[in-house]
Amino acid sequence: MLGIGTDLVDIDRFREVLRRTPTVADRVFLPSERAYASEAVDPTARLAARFAAKEATLKSFGVGLGAMRMSEIEVVKQPDGRPEIVLHGRAAEFASERGVARLLCTLSHTDTLAQAVVVALGS
Does the pLDDT value for residue 66 go beyond 90? Predict the structure, then answer.
């Protein structure tokens, strides 16, 4: 195990951020993530959980915001329902340089909070 990251997002606060600055969604989430979220009655809860996963991924690498673009970290729902972190661009290079072979992720949300935990595993 190379690192563990966790993050909590207040869903109402995140909703307000998206309302005030709609371009945040385009900068942070890939089209596939926005499309998946739009299928829900409350897309903000799904986006907040994915935002938490992106931050938790950074934390599992031992870095913070700004180390790479959030859109380079994609949260994909697998056919069996579990979330998977897929890295692109600089995020993929960064992980490879540090020996990260696999990322395990769990997401959860209530009406008010979204949480993610990410574990970075080496080869």
Answer: no
